[in-house]
# Entry
Amino acid sequence: MFFKKKKTDLAMLPKKKKGVVDKIVMGTILGGAIGSVIGITLAPKSGKETREYIKDKGKFAYQKSIEAKQKFMEEHGEGLEALKNQAQKKSGKVWNYFKKRMKRRFKK
# Structure
């Protein structure tokens, strides 16, 4: 084969490269630990308080959406109802036309 993969094992690496790998691994672990500690100490609220806050905001948004829907229906409800009725009439006409065409087609 032209390109054979060499098996790399930490034991086979020279000491200089092994030290670099060790430093990278230790830096990753240390960085994760420091980030966790900073995140916990600087968090503005506890987990329970944060969940309550999110829950309250969700309820508030839901209530606002219901109010917006009601307002929209008050302003545009009649027009929407007229459009709905018109669409039903048109769809009934289209359906009848389609049925007639199909009957004619299969009578032959």
